């Protein structure tokens, strides 16, 4: 495996590449052109500039998270082929720049959803949390404001204000899209892009739905083992793969993550590891990565990845804000650095024991 951290790029991320470089064992970053709207074409110069900046800091650009998918593709609206053509152009340019991993999601309207971005934990750290009973009382129109109010002034991934300003129109687009249609639209998109992925050896790694159940009545199709295997079968090309995100799959305690890892052998292209503490059904908060701080067995997860011979990038996922850091929710430096060190330690132990 290759240990990486997510970096949002200059002007967006207060964490510097120099800081990331000093985290033991971290050799790569996962980044993006953070100002790009879904559907926008990425220019070769912009991709090269990003890559050069990362390499200048003696790190590798290990993948892109995300090249976001336009709602026209997700809903199969009449202009979807135009947006797919643009996506293919972007993939070509990424391939030409030597990038072989693209993480994306196929969640309707909202990307990840939380109800609190700075919940104070007993130790004084702050973290992101979710409570379904709160979501049940919220009008989706108020969701963007709720997130923005708590965002520490940062633009948060997937919560682009320009896109969500037209929420009514977005919901209307999905009115006739049920799970079956959404799945068909995903397979259609993947079948269109597989040739360019074959040419440039680009692994597409779908991010699971977060949380792993329908929110605001919108369909969800990447929630657990059955869905993932269905999608791997739906488009058999090995470039159609998965981002194994423990924090998203783990929102449903019934998801047995080591078992999912075993069943996806060869199709996991990227891993996000984070821990959650479940406090009631449909209610959880993001804990420190350490197994004993949350509800998940992070050792068993790392061991399962090791056992399938996983060689792709791993990144510590959402961390708390600790030691007074006023970081981007989920993406402060310190707790993610502790996470990386812990994951590296687990990997070393598993490796030496095997
Ligand atoms: C949030 C992230 C997501 C993820 C996208 C992938 O912190 O896990 O925004 O990057 O869903 O496209």
Description:
The chain is built from 14 helices and twelve strands. The chain is of the alpha/beta class. The chain has one domain: Divalent-metal-dependent TIM barrel enzymes (TIM Barrel, Alpha-Beta Barrel). Helix 4 packs parallel to helix 9, helix 12 runs parallel beside helix 13 and helix 13 crosses helix 14. The relative contact order is 0.14. The mean pLDDT is 97. D-mannose (DNO) binds next to strand 4.
Please describe the topology of this protein.
Elements: E1 2-6, H1 17-21, E2 28-31, H2 44-56, E3 60-65, H3 71-75, H4 80-96, E4 101-105, E5 116-120, E6 126-131, H5 132-135, H6 143-149, H7 161-164, H8 167-173, H9 179-200, E7 203-207, H10 225-234, E8 240-245, H11 246-249, H12 257-263, E9 268-273, E10 276-280, E11 283-286, H13 298-307, E12 313-316, H14 333-353
Parallel strand pairs: 1-2, 1-12, 2-3, 3-4, 4-7, 7-8, 8-9, 9-12
Antiparallel strand pairs: 5-6, 6-11, 10-11
Helix pairs in contact: 4-9, 12-13, 13-14
The structure holds D-mannose.
Residues 65-66, 103-105, 111-112, 157-158, 207, 330 line the site of D-mannose.
Brief sketch in words of this structure:
The chain is an alpha/beta fold. The chain has 14 helices and twelve strands.
Labels describing this entry:
binds D-mannose; single chain; 38% helix; alpha/beta; 354 residues
Bound molecules: D-mannose
**So how many helices?**
14
Number of domain units: 1
Shape from CA axes? globular
User: Can you tell me the CATH superfamily?
Assistant: Divalent-metal-dependent TIM barrel enzymes
Order of helices and strands: EHEHEHHEEEHHHHHEHEHHEEEHEH
CA-based gyration radius:
19 Å
The low-pLDDT segments are none
So what's the CATH class?
Alpha Beta
Percent in helix: 25-40%
Distance between the termini: 15 Å
User: Which strand-content bin applies to the residues?
Assistant: 15-25%
Average residue pLDDT: 97
CATH topology: TIM Barrel
Main pleated sheet? 8 strands, parallel, barrel
């Amino acid at each position: 495996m290759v240990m990486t951290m997510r970096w949002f790029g200059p002007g967006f991320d207060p964490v510097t590449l120099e800081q990331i470089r000093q985290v033991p064992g971290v050799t790569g970053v996962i980044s993006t052109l953070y100002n790009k709207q879904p559907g926008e074409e990425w220019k070769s110069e912009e991709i090269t500039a990003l890559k050069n900046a990362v390499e200048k800091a003696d790190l590798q650009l290990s993948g892109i998270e995300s090249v976001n998918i336009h709602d026209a593709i997700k809903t199969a609206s009449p202009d979807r082929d135009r947006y797919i053509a643009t996506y293919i152009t972007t993939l070509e340019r990424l391939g030409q720049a030597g990038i072989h991993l693209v993480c994306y999601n196929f969640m309707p309207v909202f990307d990840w959803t939380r109800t609190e971005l700075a919940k104070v934990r007993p130790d004084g750290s702050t973290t992101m949390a979710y409570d379904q009973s709160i979501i049940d009382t919220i009008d989706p129109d108020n969701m963007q404001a709720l997130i923005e109010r708590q965002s520490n002034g940062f633009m948060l991934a997937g919560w682009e204000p320009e896109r969500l300003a037209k929420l009514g129109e977005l919901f209307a687009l999905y009115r006739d899209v049920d799970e079956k249609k959404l799945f068909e639209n995903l397979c259609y998109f993947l079948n269109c892009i597989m040739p360019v992925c074959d040419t440039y050896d680009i692994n597409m790694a779908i991010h699971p739905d977060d949380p792993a159940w329908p929110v605001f009545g919108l369909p969800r199709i990447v929630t657990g083992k059955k869905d993932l295997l269905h999608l791997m079968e739906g488009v058999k090309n090995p470039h159609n793969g998965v981002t194994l995100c423990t924090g998203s799959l783990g929102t449903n305690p019934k998801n047995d993550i080591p078992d999912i890892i075993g069943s996806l052998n060869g199709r996991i292209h990227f891993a996000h590891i984070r821990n959650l503490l479940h406090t009631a059904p449909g209610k959880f908060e993001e804990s420190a990565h350490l197994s004993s701080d949350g509800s998940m067995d992070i050792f068993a997860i790392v061991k399962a990845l090791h056992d399938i011979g996983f060689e792709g990038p791993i990144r510590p996922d959402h961390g708390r804000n600790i030691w007074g850091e006023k970081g981007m929710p989920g993406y402060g430096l310190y707790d993610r650095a502790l996470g990386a060190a812990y994951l590296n330690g687990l990997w070393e132990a598993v490796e030496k024991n095997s």
